[in-house]
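In response to reviewer comment 3 from the previous cycle, which asked for concrete evidence that the modeling workflow produces usable outputs, we include below a single protein chain processed end to end. The sequence was submitted unchanged, and the resulting structure tokens are shown without manual editing.
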Amino acid sequence: MLLSLFTDWAFLLEKLTLVVAVVSIGLVVAMYSTWAERKVAGALQDRPGPNRAGWFGLLQPFADAIKLFSKEDIIPSKSNKILFVLGPGLAMLAAVMTSAVIPWGDKIVIAGREITLQVSDLDLGVLYVFAVVAMGVYGVMIGGWASNNKFSLLAAIRGASQNISYELAMGLSLIALLFLTGTLSLKGIVVGQQENGWNILYQPLGFLLFLVCAFAECNRTPFDLPEAENELNFGYHQEYSSMKLGFYLFAEYINMFMSSVLMATLYFGGYDIPFFNEAASTLNPTILGLLGFGALMTKTVLFILFFMWVRWTIPRFRYDQLMDLGWKKLLPLALINMLITAVVVLVKEYGWPW
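The workflow returned the following structure tokens.
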């Protein structure tokens, strides 16, 4: 009885520690993504970027946080105050919750206990990710509607329709991937790639579709119509100030981080290190788990830098171009890719019918 109770408490402590660690990593990466964004922009535009707050500007994110915390928190008098507060909180919650099913590494051993570097290995992990991503749309819509500002509402409607449109092509590209892997578990997908090679080799078109849709889901340039301050009066969160605005801005960077981790997991082997599987059997499991985590973070950082490079090199789409691309180009391509993949899997499994 006591042993069972101790085991249960140890399991809960492990998961709680892992949750805190994963959320903390996401927040730190998102915080320094704001610094890296301006450094990348500065490098592309031949200027230094942030270089006043700390060495090389490394304290700039803390200066930004102090600025947001110290600003006056204004709630419009004619807004729906409950929903006005709920909107940014929901956007932030949806951004963070995605991390629960991502395998950050294989396992580590502490005090004789094997600890899996994943909060929860759900059998329906991919569906969980889609469900959480869909929640982010409510954060945008609630914020725009509760502001009682017609320009905020228009931007929120654009954002919601954009997310819904691109989720279709993203979902179809993932269905093609699931035909190959045969599992909805993200850990299972990574293990399959360790055994059979990375999915990017088998689904290059599916990855390209997923990548484009990820830009639209994260409201990143060239699909940042919900926040296009040049045309839309600062977008759906123009009535927000202080840390409520900070939550919306921060949620975008956390979404970018989680999308990068997800693409690395689904198509680039996750924590798998290429040409390392044979040597890995001789290593300590803890060292191997930490190396896998480092490999995943390296792939993720490369994707984040790609997001930033695209932002500062490609101009924004017009709204009609954005919807035309989603419905008339990406959706048919995703359907074709899914059908071709289904035929290939059937032929591989059962052979040609003649």
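The two ends are 62 Å apart (CA to CA). We consider this sufficient to address the reviewer's concern, and the full set will be provided in the supplementary archive.
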